[in-house]
Amino acid sequence: MSNTVEIKRRGRPPKQVESYGDTKTALIRAGLVTMTEKGFSASGLDEILRSVGVPKGSFYHYFQSKEDFGSTLIETYGKSFSVKLDKFLLDETHSPLERFSYLIENLRKYMIKHDFQRGCLIGNLGQEMGALPTVFRQQLIDVFEEWQKKTSVCFKEAQQKNEISADVDCVEFARFFWIGWEGAILRAKLERNAGALDNFTELFLKTLIK
Fold first, then answer.
1. pLDDT of res. 23
2. Measuring CA to CA, which residue among 26, 43, 25, 22 is closest to residue 34?
3. For 159-196, how does the pLDDT look when each residue is reduced to its tens digit (9 = 90+)?
4. Which pLDDT score is estimated for 197?
5. What is the pTM (predicted TM-score) of this model?
6. Separation CA 136–CA 169 (nearest Å)
7. Does residue 108 contact residue 33 with C-beta atoms inside 8 Å?
8. Quick one: which of 34, 167, 183, 206 is 20 to 30 A from 67 by CA?
9. Using one digit for the tens of pLDDT, what is the confidence trace for 26-70?
10. What is the set of domains in the chain, with CATH numbers?
11. What mean pLDDT, rounded, does the chain reach?
């Protein structure tokens, strides 16, 4: 879901920091890749540092701890994904429901591109919240609420254009979508196919439009 940079596979030399622009950016990008696959608890700093050839001393120059690093990743991912939402949901060359459908298709293609190994960082961390620093909780809630707000605005515009019923509670449907979509991502990662994504999308749209 986020436009992150690929990490070289085992057996190949790590990428040089210069290819990312600077050390902090390299660490953030590598952290996003690793944690969208494994989550926070299962992602080791040593693994992330090796992937970009950065010594541990450099890491602590930019981040006080793994917790500080995780907090930065949540903020970075949340902002990056909000930009993606705006790109699709504010595209006035298409109707509101078309924009929403194109967004879903883009997210689906992302999962397929990465062989269903990467999910959503925010969803990943939400699932393991019981084992994470408590400071992450409000950060994650705030990100989801921002995404829901952008989605509800799109649904309200669809209502105004008579694409969906005036009886639809756009705020609640936006919340329902993100709850269900994150669950579908989890199932898609488990099964390594798009079946759960497609099933949820079909039922959600039927419920939204009826």
1. 87
2. 43
3. 999 999 999 999 999 999 999 999 999 999 999 999 99
4. 98
5. 0.85
6. 29
7. no
8. 183
9. 999 999 999 999 999 989 999 999 999 988 888 998 999 999 999
10. 66-209 (1.10.357.10)
11. 89
DSSP letters of the chain?
A: ---PPPPPPTTSPPPPGGGGSSHHHHHHHHHHHHHHHH-STT--HHHHHHHHT--HHHHHHH-SSHHHHHHHHHHHHHHHHHHHHHHHHT-TTS-HHHHHHHHHHHHHHHHHHTTT----HHHHHHHTGGGS-THHHHHHHHHHHHHHHHHHHHHHHHHHTTSS-TT--HHHHHHHHHHHHHHHHHHHHHHTSSHHHHHHHHHHHHHHH-
- For the chain, the distance separating the N- and C-terminal CA atoms, rounded to the nearest angstrom, is 28
- Measuring CA to CA, which residue among 64, 46, 67 is closest to residue 56? 46
